[in-house]
Specification:
The protein is an alpha+beta fold. Helix content is 28%, strand content 23%. The protein has 13 helices and 20 strands. It has helices at 2-16, 74-82, 97-102, 105-109, 111-121, 135-144, 218-224, 227-236, 257-272, 318-321, 323-327, 351-363, 416-424, and strands at residues 38-44, 91-94, 123-127, 148-150, 162-164, 169-171, 183-186, 197-204, 213-217, 238-246, 280-284, 292-297, 303-305, 312-314, 340-343, 366-368, 375-379, 383-387, 395-402, 407-412. The longest helix is centred in the middle third of the chain and has 16 residues, at 257-272.
């Protein structure tokens, strides 16, 4: 059912490409390449918007990924880390009765201390606060910390829905169809866009148990990975496939099969892929299935320097996206949504190498059950996150943030694909 819904959404998106509004045409009658967005005046995001401001359709886009990958001496940097005492993550802040009584003033008064802890530890977990038990209070808390909200990196894909759009709060992966799906470690990032910070909140823990949130420090994963393997990944880079489209029915075209494959690839490449606002190539047969069309991100380094500290960290979603690892965990994602990770030349990564990555990543996982009102603040360039399977009903949410010292255009993003897919998919 889910697969058919997504394919229907893709078909609708493809059909939409052939019904172009006159507003998208340039004066000469040709198709304009400009996005259909209503652009608001440029403004500084040095301070977050006031909590009384409705954030519906005015959140700025997620910032571009900051890549700094050249000239990293893998062995030398690992040796430096091994000589250091890397701090534990997260830093726990458990509210005292006095802290609770202060309400939002606690966050105002301790803003610098909290942000210093975030820089040192990569994540801060707030426990026992009362004011963060609903979306409005959650927003007021992160506003008090001076955090500047933005859209999710893949907002336009239709795979992200708001829990409370007025307050810039997205729903986390709570749907029953994905309750038994293990979400591996990942940064909220694509080759193109990365949120600087994230704040995860629990409004209701899973009623039947499970659903623990977990994180791992990308610096420690970098430190402990086998040097020769880390060097290979750094040299060869990786490419991530984000979706599968099986087109076996085209085999029935006989001698027209190749032409049919080219036509479908062209439609998806020009009419659908751009709406995901990711740098994707549509490629047949990368995983050995001749009739499978995969949407594959551009080549990227799995190691990146942190944009503020310059620390090299493991900055790669392979723990979550590698097909072999997913196939050996609880997974309820349909084939169209299955992911895969290749080396940069699209060659396959061996099971032994994936086992090593899994072992090192799992070694540094710290998991915790979040209770109502608990908030986890993460440095998204430093710390990877994931979620365990759960039973019953669960309501967690998240807001994403940019650094805040850049000038940006507040825009109303093209939300067509987001709306279609969220209406078509019945994930209850």
């Amino acid at each position: 059912m889910l697969r058919l819904s997504i394919l229907a959404a893709i078909a609708a998106s493809s059909a939409e490409a052939f019904m172009v509004s006159p507003a998208l045409r340039a004066p000469n009658g040709r198709l304009s390449t400009r996005s259909a967005r209503a652009v608001a005046p440029k403004m500084s995001l040095a301070a977050p918007p006031p909590t009384t401001m409705d954030l519906t359709d005015v959140l700025p886009d997620c910032p571009k990924t900051i890549w700094d990958t050249e000239g990293i001496d893998i062995a030398a940097e690992q040796a430096k880390y091994r000589a250091m005492d890397l701090p534990d993550s997260p830093m726990y802040i458990k509210a005292t009765p006095e802290d609770v009584a202060k309400g939002f003033d606690y966050f105002v008064e301790n803003k610098q201390m909290i942000m210093d802890h975030l820089k040192k530890h990569g994540a801060v977990l707030f426990q026992g606060f009362e004011v963060t038990k609903d979306p409005k209070g959650f927003r007021e808390a992160w506003t008090a910390l001076g955090l500047n909200p933005c859209l999710d990196p893949i907002h336009t894909s239709g795979l992200r829905s708001f829990l409370d759009q007025q307050n810039g709060v997205y729903e986390e992966v709570n749907k029953q169809s994905l309750a038994q799906h293990y979400i591996g470690l990942h940064n909220e990032s694509t080759f193109k866009k990365t949120a600087t910070f994230g704040a995860f909140v629990c409004f209701n823990p899973a009623t039947g148990g499970g659903g623990e949130f977990f994180i791992a420090d990308g610096a420690k994963i970098f430190r402990d990975m086998r040097t020769d393997l880390l060097q290979k990944f750094y040299d060869d880079k990786v490419r991530i496939s984000v979706s599968n489209l099986d087109l076996n029915f085209l085999g029935g075209l006989g001698g027209l099969k190749e032409k049919g494959m080219d036509v479908v690839k062209g439609i998806v490449s020009t009419a659908v892929a751009p709406k995901f606002d990711m740098d994707l190539d549509m490629i047949y047969g990368a995983d050995g299935n001749e009739m499978r069309l995969q949407a594959v991100e551009h080549k990227q380094s799995p190691i990146n320097r942190h944009p503020d500290t310059g620390m090299p960290v493991w900055f790669c979603n392979i723990h979550n996206h590698a097909r072999y690892l997913r196939d050996n965990r609880p997974c309820t994602v349909p084939e169209v949504g299955m992911t895969e990770v290749y080396y940069g030349d699209l060659s396959h990564i061996s099971e032994a190498d994936l086992d090593h990555i899994n072992e090192v990543s799992n070694k540094h996982i710290v998991d915790f059950r979040m209770e109502q009102g608990d908030v986890l603040l993460v440095d998204n360039y430093r710390v990877l996150h994931g979620r365990d399977i759960f039973e019953g009903d669960r309501l967690h949410a998240v807001s994403w943030f940019r650094k805040g010292d850049e000038d940006v255009n507040l825009v109303k993003p093209d939300n067509m694909l987001n709306s279609i897919i969220n209406k078509a998919i019945s994930w209850k």
